[in-house]
Amino acid sequence: MWKEAEEFLLKDKYIAPLVKKWGHCSVKPIKKLLYFQDLVEAIANQQLSGKAASTIFGRVKDMCNGKIGPKVILKLSETKLRGAGLSYAKIKYIKDLSSKVENKELKIDKLDKLSDNEVIAKLVQVKGIGTWTAEMFLMFALGRPDIFPKDDLGINKAMQKLKLKNSNRWKPYRTVASWYLWRSLENR
Question: pTM for the whole thing?
Answer without folding.
Answer: 0.92
